[in-house]
Write a structure and sequence with these properties.
Length: about 190
Amino acid sequence: MEALKLEDRYTYSDYCKWDDSERLELIDGVPYAMSPAPSWRHQDVSVGFIYQLRSFLAGKPCKVFAAPFDVRLNADAGDDTVVQPDIVVICDRSKITGTGCVGAPDMAIEILSPSTESRDTLVKFKLYMNAGVREYWIVDPDKKTVAAHVLDSGRFYVSHYSETDTAPVHVLEGCDINLSEVFMDV
């Protein structure tokens, strides 16, 4: 997806003034239009992850949220990046605001769509790594795979999982995601 053709760079303050009828992300001061409503596959996979994460987190301090949910990755610096991962897990409740998260969530999950694949796998990959997101999963609903990236010493290390695997969530000790349940109807 291409950046909107606008001349200036923007901040979170500008972002808050924009019309809510069009979903946008702001990356390094440049607004990007998000695709229209995700496909049913995308939604079904998202629900599968959220169900398992929410069940695991019941009674625990961490919370799971689904898009649209603003994540301000550099709120203390230029505050010019606001992304909306498909799913986030946040364990530091002081980061949770009325409409999103200030700072890096502990985990972000992006479910690929044809219109967002390059942004999710390239641009957001670097953003999340540089912001200190401790775990970043890239989910391909068509191939029924997960690339789970775990941050260690400023770098992401990846493990690959398929639809028959159980994938451990490293930022949530004891949490394993049964991918056959996530992908069962896709």
